[in-house]
Amino acid sequence: MIIVSLIIVGLIAIIALIDAVPLWSDWFGRIRIGRYQNRKHWESSIVRVGSEWLNKTPKIKVTDNTRLVFIDMLRGNYTKSAIQQWQEAALLLGLSEQLKEAKDDTIQSAINQYLNTKFDSNGQWREKPAHVDGAILAYAIMKIDHVDPDRYKQALDYTWNMIREHIGEDGTVLYRKGMKDYRYVDTIGFICPFLVTYGLKYKADECIQLAVKQIQEYEKYGMLERHHIPCHAYQVKGKLPLGLYGWGRGLGWYAIGLIDAWQELPAGHEHKQALTDSVSKFARSALAFQRESGNWNWTVTRPESRADSSTTATLGWFLANAAKIGDISQECSKGANSAVDYLMKVTRRNGAVDFSQGDTKDIGVYAMLFNRLPFTQGFSMRLIAKIRGGQ
């Protein structure tokens, strides 16, 4: 009987530790948060963490539960591979941007190690992405300067075919095959940069046309009139908006898809001017919702809502690149630099950028936990490298 009691007490202690360790770790990690005064020091710190995370990416929770977490683990609800793919993609994009400005053997070694674990000797995915989330990871591979994308052409071709299998009756791409009636803003960020880059490299014009259509259809049916900010999704048949207008990371997904697709298109391309107009219009909208402290909130339209680092990092990246457009250059440059100032204030002493909103549960159902997010770490690295390298 005593042995049984000890076993029960031991199990309770283990369960309590599973819940307590992450909470204690967050509390301890936030001591002396935001003490960075020097951008160079801050950048080296976030890059060090980003390099470490690339091959040991922290698992991102699907739920907001902080109690009895072991139940989520047993049910397989703690994390999902699709979530991890866009975390890893952001880290790759950030580290690749860093390498554009200066060679770094540590970063290059981390990237090479990552590629060896993700692809076989034929350049095919070891674990093939089942969802369109994987396309942003394929895009990140194509953006590594020291790697020949042709080496991974099998994986890139697979990704294009996977996207093609997700095209719905309206000619735009589904977020999931089981959600044919909706179009999500996330999908723009997942697929459009890849489609344009792949289409240009391999002379597949239909890819470019699809990317532009995905953006323009969303602008037509998924944007709030006058304010030009996206809702979470829209219904295909009735064109009804769904979820929240002004969800911060939704703005971020739209911004990533638009700005990276625009940058990939060469001057003189038939769609370049249309996307330039879209970038200018959205830049003005994004700047209108930036807070005085440089951040955007998780609901950008509500000053009472919490600041979100993931929104701030992605919109900062957008503005840093939109600053190439003459008539909005100064405002965009100022906005991007203000975003960096904010991100420095929410970076832990170990170099991890904190206070990013967790993973979204469903249309209109948003996480209320704010913590570290590799996605934010990646775009923070990408942003500061862009600013340091000159706009």
UniProtKB/TrEMBL annotation:
Transmembrane segments: none annotated. Its EC number is 3.2.1.172. GO terms for molecular function: unsaturated rhamnogalacturonyl hydrolase activity. Keywords: Glycosidase, Hydrolase. The keyword Hydrolase applies. It holds the Pfam family Glyco_hydro_88. This is Unsaturated rhamnogalacturonyl hydrolase. It comes from Paenibacillus harenae.
